[in-house]
Amino acid sequence: MPETTPKGLTRLAFGGDYNPEQWPETVWQEDVRLMREAGVTMVSVGIFSWALLEPSPGAYDFGWLDRLLDLLHDDHGIRADLGTPTVAPPAWFYRAHPEALPVTADGTRYEFGSRGAICHSNADYRAAAANITTRLATRYADHPALALWHVHNEYGVPVSACYCDSCAAHFRRWLTDTYGTVDALNEAWGTAFWGQRYADFDQINPPRLTPTVGNPGQALDYKRFADATLRENFVAERDILHRLAPGIPVTTNFMTALSQCDSVDYWAWGREVDLVTNDHYLITDGRRTHVNLAMAADLTRSVAGGAPWLLLEHSTSGVNWQPHNPAKAPGQMARNSLAHVARGSEGAMFFQWRQSRRGAEKFHSSMLPHGGTDTRVWREVVELGSAVDSLRTIRGTRTRADVAVLWDWQSWWAQNLQWRPSEDHDPRERADAFYEALYDRHLTVDFAHPEADLSAYPLVVVPALYLMTEAAGNNLKEYVDNGGTLVVSYFSGIVDEHDAVHDGPYPGALRDVLGLTVEEFSPLLKDDRVRITGPDGSELTGEVWSEFVVPRGAETLWTYADGLTAGHPAVTRHRLGEGSAWYVSTRLTAQGLDAVLGLAADDARIAPCTDLPRDVEVVCRTGESGTFLFAVNHTALDTKVPLDAHGTELLTGERAAGHVSVPAGTVRVVRLDG
Ligand code: GAL
After folding, report:
1. Angle CA(510)–CA(511)–CA(512) in degrees, nearest 5?
2. How confident is the model at residue 640, as a pLDDT?
3. Is 314's C-beta closer than 6 angstroms to any atom of ligand 1?
4. Residue ranges of the domains in the chain?
5. Nearest to 367, CA basis, from 384, 350, 346
6. Which residue has a Cα nearest atom 9 of ligand 1?
7. What is the whole-number distance in angstroms between the Cα of residue 37 and the centre of ligand 1?
């Protein structure tokens, strides 16, 4: 069994990407001295260093990296997360192999001069990547600084798929393996439509630019193929590292909840890495950034199967790649970092250690800013380093969740293809909205694949899963039959794994469990609203979508009061076996989601949490070293979080009984007695 925790790291990870090649070696001395001052325990190095390590084909210069790793380890005891630099092949490589540059769907070939310009089917790229990985593994397998391998960087961005001729040939091989015969492929893709039938695998290309909408089965399979191709590349590097450097865990940094990186099926990736690591940046689009952060952390933990994971990158303050990049408010960095730790991260790492003076990311914040040590950011970094250190006993504990939300990247790939009933329906919007509603009820969420065992959860929420296999539908039915409470949002369970509509009335995969059929979708025009009224006279608002729902066993709780669907059920509940299955057929606003989830939570016997203010997070980690209650106060008011046990607050050392005081904007972590 490969190791799953960074070798030799006895504390939580605290540090960041360190790019010393951007600085003269005299600066390195200052770097490591300041790292010690800040309590840095691990840094990520060498991620973009291929051009320095192999300055010309077959000529290597490892001297600087030897000196760097020695400096980190010998004098300062700092562990290294060592990159394989395969996300940034050198200029000489592209001169020799221009066809390794990726091609877009419209036939444009990217140029060298940034990073991540890679066709992952290209044999020359694969050979060169294997070679540099082998050299690094051979040289550093036994280096005492080496704690973790960091393969590549953020697979899936900036290029998620290439459409060149080698990818076309690779795709044909993948299709042959997947379908066996071209007849099976014709059936799955529905090529009888628009005369798209293939007589041979050789006739098939990637879904390149077509005059109008292309075949959805082909487009969906290309997403799967592109994801599998990235994973083949990762696995090839990982296997070299496992063989040559046994005992050192291998990771690659994910970006689980970032909608900009939705081309990677992290359920599959989570099974391939030794340690799940994640990068998270606040998206400043006017929404509550800490809710998206909590969601990303919960999703990362779920991808890790509930095991501890590691936040490998986040920012000390503003980033530089959004339209507006606000600085973090005083205290916000620590709140962000420790909120990740609460939800399972074994530390908090940043991009990057020292702010660059040159290059594309010079305006991105860092641990050591342009302004040096006499800055707020630096002082907060030093303070955070000490806070993180005081939490070292939480290592190995697991975050406890209350409910599950189903999540499936493949379903989104299908849903986001063209020509759907409404372009305003965005499945990710529903996932965010349901998550936020659960967050506001102070419930901790695990995410789960639709075919996963759900029996541990009293409540399971399906925000928008357009693609759902028959197996997933049966899984949900069994879950409800056995006493679970299920809440399903509209336009779920519609198509199978090939984007073919399930046989019979909608929603094919969920008809039985929901006890209803949907006769017709009735999407709303932009800015239209529908009123829906409940049995107690309560009124909710729907947007974007409505439906002609026909109950077939389900009871109607709310009814459309106006619009084309007036008089039809809007929200239903089906009692089945020991459990119940709720259906919401419109896009409810936050108030509506809260009302429905409140009643469903009652069905699930989840006690409402009435004693915590909005935006005060309480999350528990538990394990052999104890139970740790994290309270994160995102508000501007001091608050008290009730405790039903006594304990010791780890950041202040104070005893806590009955409650823990959490001053405005801060975090408290209580280790409960016993
Ligand atoms: C990450 C990337 C880092 C850095 C960072 C800036 O996605 O892995 O190398 O670019 O973004 O926010």
Report:
1. 95
2. 97
3. no
4. 13-163+206-399, 403-603, 616-672
5. 350
6. 351
7. 25
Does 380 qualify as catalytic in the annotation? no
State whether residue 510 is helix, strand or coil.
Answer: coil
* Active-site residue, selected from the candidate residues 21, 37, 111, 154: 154
Q: Which of 87, 284, 351 to mutate to test the pocket of ligand 1 (most atoms within 8 A of CB)?
A: 351
Q: How far is the CA of 274 from the centre of ligand 1 (A)?
A: 22
List Cα–Cα distances, 659 to 44, 50, 386, 647, 655, in angstroms.
Answer: 39, 53, 24, 9, 10
74 pLDDT higher than 90 = no
For domain 13-163+206-399, give the CATH number.
Answer: 3.20.20.80
Q: Which atom of ligand 1 is nearest to the CA of 315?
A: 12
Give the helix ranges, DSSP H, for 542-621.
590-603
For residues 455 and 486, the answer to whether their CB atoms sit within 8 Å is no
Closest atom of ligand 1 to CA, residue 48: 9
CA distance 415 to 51: 40
CATH fold for the domain made of 403-603: Rossmann fold (3.40.50)
Main-chain phi, psi angles of 513, to 5 degrees: -70, -35
Percent of the chain past pLDDT 70, that is, above it, reads: 100
pLDDT in tens, 429-465: 999 999 999 999 999 999 999 999 999 999 999 999 9
For ligand 1, the distance from its centroid to the CA atom of residue 178, given in whole angstroms, is 35
539 in active site: no
Tokens of 51: 């051009």
Give, in words, the CATH class of 616-672: mainly beta
From the CA of 281, give the closest atom in ligand 1.
12
Q: How confident is the model at residue 355 (pLDDT cuts 50, 70, 90)?
A: very high
CA of 236 to the centre of ligand 1 (A): 23
Report which of 25, 35, 664 is spatially closest to residue 349, judged by C-alpha positions.
35
Mean pLDDT of 304-308: 97
